[in-house]
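Exam review. A common question shows you a sequence with its structure tokens and asks you to describe the fold in words. Practice with the pair below. Do the first one on your own.
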Amino acid sequence: MSDPKFIPFHVPSIGEEEIQEVVDTLRSGWLTTGERTARFERDFKAYTGAQHALAVNSCTAALHLALAALDIGPGDEVITTPITFCATVNTILHVGATPVLADILPDGNIDPASIAARITPRTRAIIPVHLAGLPCDMEAIWRLARQHGLRVIEDAAHAAGTRYRGASLGCERGGFRSDAVAWSFYATKNITTGEGGMVTTDDAALAARMKVLCLHGISKDAWNRYAENGSWFYQVLEEGFKYNLSDVQSAIGIHQLKKIDRFAEARRAIAERYTRRFRDLEEVETPPAGEPGEHSWHLYILRLRLDRLGIDRNRFIEELKRRRIGASVHFIPIPLHPYFAPWADLPHNQCPRALAFYERIVSLPLFPDMTMEQADTVAAAVEEIVAANRTRPVADVVGAR
């Protein structure tokens, strides 16, 4: 039995609308990719302003499709951040390319200057990751890409609802735009389909190729083949994958998307509450909010000032757990995973700022249905842990200001 007083790291917000749409889908007799998935794609395209949207079964699939459709492969290098989930790097390896790691800025996002230092004649693409929902410095990244003839694929797994310079991610600004944007609808994301993702682009040819690659490389959708007026005939145009999203999942996504702005506002309110509570604590740093209205607050990543605390990050999380509060870490840097270490720990992939960042970060509970009472309980626990483990008396801290 679950502890009613435990505050989890995340709880998905699922309403009766999603439940009824799933039930209707199950009763319709059509469960795989079909009309509801097409509707979800249309709605997401309209929300983001993209010319094309393709629903897939994960953000990992979206990244893989974009890389494959852009013909990035053996002999090519792709620059990304070490502060990301392993899927970002795995997809680069899937196409046979070589991942190259660029260090981060203090906000946790990839540093354009570090990207510039990593570019070689073999570099083909950049994959920036919008950590926690805070947009990267895309203008600087786009300028580098144009200067060196590189592709840009945005990893927006955290960033449904994020804005950049007043528009959705991927939209053209000042003559610049990304080739593709990969989105996640995993269970903990800003909107969810349980498992799922989307890839958006303004490039019609790229969209068409990703669509073919998405479903075994065949020439038409399954629901067109099996519909009343469909044809059984199809052709395999190239080697493809099994990355399509089902109508059961899209049934959830249709209604989640309608709530995305409300979810973002709820997340923002919790984040602001945390920041107000922590602003006078000398032992922690609050995450940057970015420009007003841009951050979608997928995560609230607190930074510990370990030089002012007598415990490390791992013990801090244990203390939260002892107080019945769930927390996490985003992310374990790529070089620290045994499988990636042989190449990620090479001299040209050294990212000391990322490794230092990792040692002091804690992701606190944050979800749309979280109450202010729960947020205050989390904040009080953080304050209590800090008070019990600070290395300088409060009077010294105040006097040092």
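Now try the second one, then compare your answer with the model answer below.
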Amino acid sequence: MQVIGTQVIPEQGGRRGFTVEFVGKGGEVVSVQLRKDMDRTLTSNNAIDRAKAVMGELASFDATTALSSVEAGEAQPSARAAGDVDEMEDQLAQGLEDSFPASDPVSVTSSAIPTGKVRKH
């Protein structure tokens, strides 16, 4: 990939981190998401260097070792991949509980105060 441009996109104004996009001559785009670390050393100025370091680690990653550990049963497949409907239902219920009250149906509210008086027409 011949990089012709980079772009640093702040996540929530940089408070959550940055997304660095590398744009290639053939229209390829590689995005690297970087989250803020505890010591808050990630800035828009050093985000590109950090993204390059992450991609360097990725390039040296041995996928055959990771694949053989999955085949050996060391890594457990997701509920969706395993077809475990009960587990997927449990995960859905947990997600809905975690998002409460946003998952509740919308209700109509009014700021009117009842006076107890009824008007006759």
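Model answer, second protein: The chain is about 35% helix and 20% strand. Strands lie at 3-11, 17-24, 29-35. Full marks require stating both points clearly.
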